[in-house]
Amino acid sequence: MLRRSLLGAATLAWTLPRVSRAAAPDSLVFSWPSNAGPLDPHGYGPNQMYAQAMLYEPLVRYGASGTIEPCLATRWALDESGRAWTFTLRPGVRFSDGTAFDAAAAKANIDILLRHRERHGWLELMSRIEAAEAPDPATLRLRLDQPYDPALFDLSLVRPLRFASPAVLLPGGSVSAPIGTGPWRLAESRRGERDVFLRREDYWGEKPALRQVVVKVVGDANTRALALEAGEIDLVYGADQLDADTFRRFAADARFTTAISPPMATRMLAINSGRAATDDLAVRRAIQQGIDRDALARHVLQGTEPAATSLFAPGMSKAAPGLMTLPFDPMAAVTVLEQAGWQLPPGGRVRQKQGAVLALDLCFSGGDALQKALAEAIQSDLGRIGIAARLLGADAATLQARQRSGDFGLVFTETWGPPYDPHAFLGAMRAPSHADWQAQRGLPMKAAIDRRITALLAATNATAREADEQWVLTTLHEQAVYFPISFLTNKQVHRKGLGEVPFGGTFDEIPFHHIRRG
């Protein structure tokens, strides 16, 4: 289903102008489906996270080894009450407009966030911060209303707790220009064409080997593959930038280097417990055993993502490994449905119960060829056990609206990977704007789930926190709210002359500053 024929080279020559390698030996040409956006460090879509991470830096960074490392703060300490963090700020740091980064600048950013706290309710730390204080230029203090153990992980995220120059902060909560402390600055942005990032020669840390990164806007995976093959772009990097067949084709081509990261997050379906017919636990359980995830991993994903065996990827949660997915067993799925009263009418192919038809909407991103292929395979599997899945491909805005309103039966979603999983992902389940809340809203114990999540986020005792996490994950597992498909990986393809391209420690940060031409 993902196999495609490549267009001719003449089409590519018209689509993307050729880049001269001789003219740009210290330049990298990358591609992304859309422009970087306004690059507000505190904003969400259409801001692209990889670009926000290029310009803006956190107090502390999540390292590739899974540890918290210094960034704009060199040291930090938690007081005895567990409610105040004190950070010693790195000296000599300046924003790309020349403004000094100090405690007053950091406080100005956090004050803006606190004035618009409702925008960031998905992140628990934003609910816990009472105030930011700047007792002197080198010291920032964050006062919390209660202890919150994952605070440093939340501070390391790409957004919203990063810092723009005070000169560009607007009262409404956005910025007038993308000015950060990071190793790159935005030099040019042409809508629908490209974004150009230049190395900052006055950057406080180790400077990137590359002088510039040109990001071409290439919305179609076929065109992206053609551009890479013809030398119009140097690197493809990400979870779904190429379909699996194309990735495997590049892997067999001696001109290219390919790599797959370790599992980082989970690709899955959220199953709506608040909407017919998936409000029936029997239907949700039948879905668990009616879809062949091993076949999806083998035939659709082509082995680029291992089949998921739990809600979280390995190492993300101590509670998850004991909650293994049910094996593919369509006969067991049929038995569950029939025992619950869902019968096939004579000569029919779709089950019914008391006049209700067992049909549901399977929603996916219409522009994502991989999701479409997965959806078609899932539709076929469900059809074999008498469940009619209507495929609804939608643009990003429409799909987001469906997730926020609960207007779906099944919808593709993902966990967020490190450093979000499990705490931030679980915390966001309490926000009605998320597909997870909508998927869980029909559960009789939804209020208890939210209370347990709130308790585990506030816990300072590891045993109590793990007990609450185990209860939440066990309940979601027993209620069959999620169908894990595969463990997400980042994939990269580049010409061998580019040299080594490392993987970042998170999905959203592409380590351009560590790339150097061979």
Automatic annotation (TrEMBL):
SUPFAM superfamilies: Periplasmic binding protein-like II. One of its GO terms (biological process) is nickel cation transport. Residues 67-434 form the Solute-binding protein family domain. Coiled coil: none annotated. It comes from the Bacteria. It holds the Pfam family SBP_bac_5. It is found in: Periplasm. GO terms for cellular component: outer membrane-bounded periplasmic space. GO terms for molecular function: heme binding; nickel cation binding; peptide transmembrane transporter activity. Signal peptide: none annotated. Belongs to the bacterial solute-binding protein 5 family. This is Nickel ABC transporter, nickel/metallophore periplasmic binding protein. The gene is nikA.
